[in-house]
Amino acid sequence: MENTTPHPPCSGWKTPPAFRRPVRTEPTAPRSLRFCPPTAKHAFSLVELSIVLVILGLLTGGILTGQSLIRAAELRSVVTELQKYQTAVRSFQDKYFALPGDMRNASSFWGTMTNCGAASPSGTGTQTCNGNGDGIMNNPPVSSQTGEVFAFWQHLANAGLIEGTYTGISGPGGGGDVVIATNVPASKLGNSGWSIWDWGDLSAGSTTTLFAANYRNMLLFGEKGPGITEKENMTPEEAWNIDTKIDDGLPARGKAKIRDRRDCALASNGAPLTTSSADSLKLDAKYNLSLNATECSFVFHALM
């Protein structure tokens, strides 16, 4: 008996209707002997590939431009934040006749925390601890205790002069341990924050990283370091730009100084700066503008 089953169609190929023939009743040819026309293969033309490359270039350029704009906006916010805190401190002094954090009678206005200056302090709402009124921002001696450098932010927030709520208590890492957005304010510049610290008078130049100056009640800006917000968070050019806007554009003079002179700054003759006491006295230093790395953070004379 003859096999009347039609041949299976070739994959991806159809015979136009006008050329279809009636099925012939003949034995089916082995699959290996059947002929199928080659399947057409489609590829991108040079014009199409060129268009794709142009689009990718535009997208990449747009992303890079967007990142630059975001970074520029974040850097502008540093100046705004600094001015906000300076204004808040002046307003606090005008109203309460004391420095925030150092205020002797703060608990009379906002209530008292338990265990002020001792282990396991706690409080609710605006409850806080008093300062000693000596005009110096003192830090807690150990971790998880109250201290003026942290009560500083708590008092400003309680007075309604800055946004946020702050614990007034040092973090678990030591007496000066900051926890950004918990006991000190965060900045809009990524991973950065603000803190208060007092190194005293270092005008004699006995310092390995700071320039010689009086560092009483300094406002620090940077990423979290071993304790305070002193870790580098901007390039020398970015730091120079901020310094020029608000001060003198010099890393060792004025109200804005860099936290670590090494790498961020150079001697006036272009030589690198080291940890030697002699280099701390090179107050004519300049920013290392050719260095494109995050080697700078700031200390501001904000409370003097």
Sequence-ordered SSE layout with sheet pairings:
Blueprint: H1 46-96, H2 106-110, H3 148-158, E1 192-197, E2 200-201, E3 214-215, E4 218-223, H4 236-246, E5 256-258, E6 265-266, H5 277-280, E7 286-287, E8 298-300
Antiparallel strand pairs: 1-4, 2-3, 4-8, 5-8, 6-7
Helix pairs in contact: 1-4
What report would you give on this structure?
It is a single chain. This protein has 304 residues and is α+β, with helices and mostly antiparallel strands. The protein folds into 2 domains: 64-198, no CATH class; 199-213 and 232-304, no CATH class. The chain has 5 helices and 8 strands; from the N terminus they run H-H-H-E-E-E-E-H-E-E-H-E-E. It has helices at 46-96, 106-110, 148-158, 236-246, 277-280, and strands at 192-197, 200-201, 214-215, 218-223, 256-258, 265-266, 286-287, 298-300. The strands form 3 sheets. Strands 1-4-8-5 form a 4-stranded antiparallel sheet. A two-stranded antiparallel sheet has the order 2-3. The longest helix has 51 residues, at 46-96. It is globular, with a radius of gyration of 34 Å.
